[in-house]
Amino acid sequence: MVRPEGYRVIGGEQAPWPPPKREKTVFLLGGSTSLGSGALYDQTIMAYMQKSQEKINVYNFGTGAHYST
Q1: Model pTM score
Q2: Residue 46 is part of which domain span?
């Protein structure tokens, strides 16, 4: 599921929107590999980052059908 704000939900560990101030936040931008096309929500790279020991707010703004030439 992609939220109206443009990021892919990464499961139950999804950080709140808008990003909390004064906390570490990571935005992932990229194509379908970044988006995690074909992967379950909780199995994307960003989902694993969100589950890390360190508190990081993670948002996956990857989009499908984009590539470099």
Answers
A1: 0.78
A2: 1-69
